[in-house]
Design a protein that fits this description.
The complex is a heterodimer of chains A (289) and B (275). With 289 residues, chain A is mainly alpha-helical. Chain A has a two-stranded antiparallel ribbon. In chain A, strand 1 and strand 2 form a beta hairpin. By secondary structure, chain B is mainly α. Chain B folds into two domains: 33 residues; 209 residues, MetI-like (MetI-like fold, Orthogonal Bundle). In chain B, 75% of the residues lie in helices and 0% in strands. In chain B, helix 9 runs antiparallel to helix 10. The chains are: A mainly alpha (289), B mainly alpha (275).
């Protein structure tokens, strides 16, 4: 190759702009945040090294545990339901239904709207006195439900809105994988007299296993990072019953200005996400071989 | 036998149709609500269609809130982010795909590891960092942390690798430099992948919530995503106004979607299949 002798130099020059920004706004804050987590640091006062004290406090902070639990609840509710729903949608848009093209657009469209728009809309649908859901309940003679203000329902309501918002995203990923399956495979199975659901379980699912496990990991990560929907729809209420971990991190950092404590908490979240994705990756990967 | 199948066929189609209508309905409801007179929404009698259709909520949203300013802010921030992403992502992806140099693999994994880092982990250190630069409460503070997009590097690298080396080599024989072949051979052939990355970057930036919420203090500096959330706090019970705000906030994204529908869907699929 002609520019061979200049390759090294050119290689670095092409990398520099990205690396500069990447190191400055990603690598550096990532390291700096970890360091801050060992300090007592309130923006106004000076930094004071306190070793592992932030982490120790954290493990005896009941609000930390409850926030972590709410995040976990959200992960446990939304991950399986979003995967199943996304998969059913993907099957539908790859079926012979005359509505499959319309279906692809309609299922995907909520994802086009931003989180705050979706949350505003669902907070209105679920409003206790004037919302559509309770109007519908009352027309069939049922009592109104405090979807977002009753602690029994709130996390489920937020999860449901999230389901509507992002299921279409999983549909697109899974549908793309389904389309890559050669049609001959399906033809031979239909000759063998396999039913539709047999084909789905025996052919479609195993063949898109890689995509399914990718969706699973992406979904777990996204659900662990939940904040916006909850913040807008319930504000973490009623009585903190939906306060998720990121909200608690946000409150500690920017309402109480406990920067060090807040940083420590975000590293625990980071570690949890890493561990979960590694485990899921391992499970998915091992089955592959 | 044939009759039974036909019956089942129609039942299935009807169920599908109902599900699709229900799925779409919240959006229709958003539009309908925004056309109601505020008091009609909280009256005892329930109106499905607006009894006195009005655009007053839209007028009010535009005149008595910062919504137009928020839209402009979002467009400026997302467009700048997207352009800067392309400017820095494309060259490094090219280097990873086509140039041999020392430390390439280490660098590549360093960049890919970035995909694993949840942005939320960075908010405290980023806030302190931008605070020390005196850039808090500026658009720049929202733009800069979102510019380096590892998934974009990945998508572009995969695409560039698929371009035959022979195309570049003939240009090199004519005396072209790396920069020349990159800009006149590689980039023109890569519009598909570049569009995908552009769209991902734009959507990413447009939907960003937590970081702009922290980085921007003044109401008139908000992005639309933060602004609409702020609306909830300040106009919490004016539902028609809230929902007309939500409609206005959605228009740019919706237009963006209509224009790039296929590209957006392809982009997501591409990022997924290759990841």
């Amino acid at each position: 190759m002609i520019p061979g002798n200049k390759d090294s130099r050119d290689g670095y020059i092409f990398c520099i702009p990205f690396l500069l920004i990447y190191i400055l706004f990603m690598v550096y804050p990532l390291i700096n945040g970890f360091i801050i987590s060992f300090f007592k640091y309130n923006i106004l006062s000076t930094k004071k090294f306190i070793g592992l004290a932030n982490y120790r406090t954290l493990f005896s902070d009941s609000k930390f545990y409850s926030s972590l639990w709410h995040t976990t609840q959200f992960v446990l509710i939304t991950t399986p339901s979003l995967l199943i729903l996304g998969f059913l949608m993907a099957l539908f848009v790859n079926s012979k239904s005359p509505f499959k093209v319309a279906g692809e657009s309609i299922f995907f469209i909520p994802y086009v709207f931003s989180m705050t728009v979706v949350s505003t809309l669902w907070a209105w649908l679920m409003q206790k006195n004037y919302g559509l859901f309770n109007h519908l309940l009352s027309t069939v003679g049922l009592n109104p439900v405090g979807w977002l203000i009753d602690s029994k329902w709130a996390i489920w309501s937020v999860s449901f809105a999230t389901l509507w918002w992002t299921a279409g995203f999983n549909m697109i990923l899974m549908s793309a994988a389904i389309r890559q399956i050669p049609t001959e495979i399906y033809n031979s199975s239909s000759i063998d007299g396999a039913s539709y659901w047999q084909t789905v379980f025996k052919i479609t699912m195993p063949l898109i296993k890689k995509t399914l496990s990718l969706c699973l990991i992406l979904q777990v990560i996204a659900s662990f990072n939940v904040f916006g929907q909850v913040f807008v729809m319930t504000g973490g209420g009623p009585y903190g019953s939906t306060r998720v971990l990121i909200q608690y991190i946000y409150e500690n950092g920017f309402s109480y200005f406990k920067m060090g404590y807040s940083a420590a908490m975000s590293y625990i979240l980071f570690a949890l996400i890493m561990i979960c994705s590694l485990i899921l990756n391992k499970i998915g990967g091992n089955e592959d071989d | 036998m044939i009759e039974r199948k036909d019956f089942k066929y129609y039942v299935l189609r009807i169920i599908e149709l109902i599900v699709l209508i229900i799925w779409l309905f919240p959006l229709i409801w958003m539009a309908l609500t925004s056309l109601h007179v505020e008091n009609d929404l909280i009256s005892k009698s329930f109106h499905f269609l607006p009894a006195h259709p009005t655009l007053a909520n839209y007028t009010k949203a535009f005149t008595s809130t910062y919504i137009l300013q928020w839209l402009i802010n979002s467009i400026i921030i997302s467009t700048s982010t997207m352009i800067l992403t392309l400017i820095i992502d494309a060259p490094i992806a090219y280097a990873f795909a086509k140039i041999k140099f020392k430390g390439k693999n280490v660098l590549f994994w360093l960049v890919m590891a970035g995909m694993m880092v949840p942005f939320q982990v960075l908010i405290i250190p980023l806030y302190l960092q931008f605070n020390s630069y005196h850039l808090i409460n500026t658009s720049l503070s929202v733009i800069l942390p979102r510019v380096a997009l590892p998934i974009g590097v990945f998508i572009l690298k995969q695409f560039f690798e698929g371009i035959p080396n022979a195309l570049e080599e003939s240009a090199f024989l004519d005396g072209a430099t790396r920069y020349k072949t990159f800009s006149s051979v590689i980039l023109p052939l890569s519009t598909a992948a570049l569009t995908t990355v552009t769209i991902l970057s734009f959507i990413n930036s447009w939907n960003d919530f937590l970081w702009p919420l922290i980085a921007l203090n003044d109401t008139d500096k908000y992005t639309i995503t933060v602004g609409i959330a702020n609306f909830q706090g300040t106009h919490g019970t004016e539902y028609a106004l809230l929902l007309s705000g939500a409609v206005i906030a959605s228009i740019p994204q919706f237009v963006f979607y209509l224009f790039f529908r296929k590209k957006i869907v392809e982009g997501i699929a591409m990022a997924g299949l290759k990841g």
